[in-house]
Amino acid sequence: AGDREEAGWVPVAGRRRCVDCGFALSETAVSWPTCTPLAREMLKTPGTTRGSAGARSKQAFSLNGGAGTHLDAPAHFVEGGRTIDQLRVDELAGVPLAVVDVADSCAGGDGRYRCDEAAVEADEARHGAIPRGALVCIRTGWAEARYGLGVDAYCNWPDPADLDPYTGVARMHFPGLTAGA
Q1: How far apart are CA 22 and CA 28, in angstroms?
Q2: Residues contacting 166, CB < 8 A, separation 6+
Q3: pLDDT per position as a tens digit, 89-129
Q4: Which of 49, 67, 111, 156, by CA, is between 20 and 30 Å from 103?
């Protein structure tokens, strides 16, 4: 049966284990180049509200929906695809998780690697079949290797003169998927 059933599925008080795969958000965190980074405004502090019954801190945040670790709905890429509000919680939580790890294939690369059917089939040969209804994630290792190095390393724009006609930003290269995967 392979190790797909055991890997990462450590019971905790009768439940499956949760693993935080996110990156911390801050005003200095890497942000998508066409989006405003996180902004924080301090509205009140205990010092500015001293003497009142409501002494407290109060902050306001502005954050682009694509900032940090997030989920893109099918509509982000597919015309007519479902939007986030149309995804059910039971489709994302409480379902089997399969992680296809292609980080070794992406390591040291130029960001042009594409996970294909052969990579998924090789992963299944090593770890067992991906269960029907599973949430499938592809681990490229890209963010782990580059996120802390700054926006240029993360966005990987090798030719500043090669502009994307829609954004006006130099084309970025990231690992991805083929349609067959």
Answers
A1: 16
A2: none
A3: 888 877 888 899 999 999 988 889 999 999 999 999 999 99
A4: 67
